[in-house]
Design a protein that fits this description.
Blueprint: E1 2-5, E2 19-22, E3 32-42, H1 44-52, E4 69-76, E5 88-91, E6 104-108, E7 112-114, H2 121-125, H3 128-141, E8 152-156, H4 161-173, E9 177-181, H5 185-194, E10 198-200, H6 205-211, E11 217-222, H7 226-236, E12 237-245, E13 264-267, H8 272-275, H9 283-296, E14 304-309, H10 313-324, E15 331-335
Helix pairs in contact: 3-4, 3-9
Pfam families: ADH_N (PF08240), ADH_zinc_N (PF00107)
Keywords: Acetylation, Cytoplasm, Metal-binding, NADP, Oxidoreductase, RNA-binding, Zinc
InterPro entries: ADH-like_C, ADH-like_N, ADH_Zn_typ-1, ER, GroES-like_sf, NAD(P)-bd_dom_sf, Quin_OxRdtase/zeta-crystal_CS, Zinc-ADH_QOR/CCCR
């Protein structure tokens, strides 16, 4: 099968920053599915791992990354019970295993969902990683429930991949009042399209939120930079509120700033369940099936915004360049 990977971490301008190569089609065992891939989407985790994972070494065999795929089940392992050959599936995979930048991939059925029937392969490929992240941070980490309907949530990075679907889920599933951040006219418009009630500029966060009519907010989701906004979060969060983050702070944050308000802080990493084979690993299968239903019935819409056709080194580099720019709106998908 054809795959695209890298042997060492290089800038995209370097010829070998990605390499196309041939390798064996893997055979599924246990609870693994062998999936023939139709489309993939690119996330910040892709370029972060490409930039940092092999900085000081050269691998003998290229590393295959990629987390977000849609495809068809070709074969199943001997313990598989959720899927059969021919099923269309979508998933975000496992960061500890070979990724989806290949024609075929092995993936544990417990972190796989049935592809939304109403969506194209490209539109479906845009969804798994970001939807899982948003769903888990809202409902598994902060534990938002029926009692929270009508409460306010501030989403930092509303036009990004996770922010886009988090706006939709917070508004249309959790019933929250959504304040999202964006600074460019096109990203402001995108956030409104996703369902944000209010869009504010992150460059003057406290004043922007208060000028929009919110002295404090019940929940805050950080999808950008915890260090940059930490003091603003501590000021804006309501007593007994909750803050959740997926970002990678470069410096420690002072949790004591939250103590007087009894505010809780929550980390979210979508890969945790697969990495640690947690007792509830199958929860991701059920979340993805739920997301598929919500996409099919029109409650949620795909956040696909850019499609690149063709599984080539040049196209994968282009997708990574778009993500590295930090200016992408919605999701970037590559079709096979």
């Amino acid at each position: 099968m054809k795959a695209i990977g890298f042997k060492t971490s290089l800038p995209l301008s370097e010829k070998d920053s990605f390499i196309a190569f041939e390798t064996e089609v893997p055979a599924p065992t246990g609870r693994d599915l062998l999936v023939k891939i139709k489309a993939i989407s690119i996330n910040p985790v892709d370029f972060k791992i490409r930039q940092n994972s092999t900085k000081d070494k050269v691998l003998d065999t290229p590393k295959i990354i990629g987390w977000d795929a849609v495809g068809v089940v070709e074969e199943v392992g001997n313990e598989v019970s959720l899927f059969k050959k021919g099923d269309e599936v979508f998933y975000a995979g496992d960061i500890t295993r070979s990724g989806c930048n290949a024609e075929y991939q092995l993936v544990d059925e417990r972190i796989v969902g049935s592809k939304p029937r109403s969506l194209s392969a490209a539109a479906a490929a845009a969804m798994p990683l970001t939807a899982l992240t948003a769903w888990e941070i809202l409902f598994d980490r902060i534990r938002i429930n029926e009692k929270d309907k009508g409460k306010s949530i501030l989403i930092i990075g509303g036009a990004g991949g996770v922010g886009s679907i988090a706006i939709q889920i917070a508004k249309k599933v959790a019933g929250l009042k959504v304040i999202a951040t964006a600074s460019r006219p096109e990203s402001v418009e995108w956030c409104k399209k996703q369902g944000a009630d209010v869009v504010v500029n992150h460059k003057d966060l406290v004043n922007e939120v208060r000028n929009a009519g919110f002295q404090q907010v019940d929940f805050i989701l950080d999808f950008v930079d915890l260090n940059q906004y930490w003091n603003a979060f501590a000021e804006l969060i309501k007593p007994q509120g909750s803050i959740g983050s997926i970002s990678d702070p470069t410096e420690p944050v002072n949790l004591r700033q939250l103590k007087s308000k009894s505010v809780s802080f929550h980390w979210e990493l979508m890969f945790t369940r697969a990495m640690f084979q947690t007792d509830d690993i199958s929860e991701q299968h059920y979340i993805l099936d739920n997301i598929a239903t919500l996409l099919d019935n029109g409650t949620l819409t795909s956040t696909l915004n850019t499609t690149i056709d063709g599984f080539t080194v040049e196209n994968l580099k282009q997708a990574h360049q778009l993500l590295e720019s930090g200016k992408t709106i919605g999701k970037v998908v590559l079709t096979y």
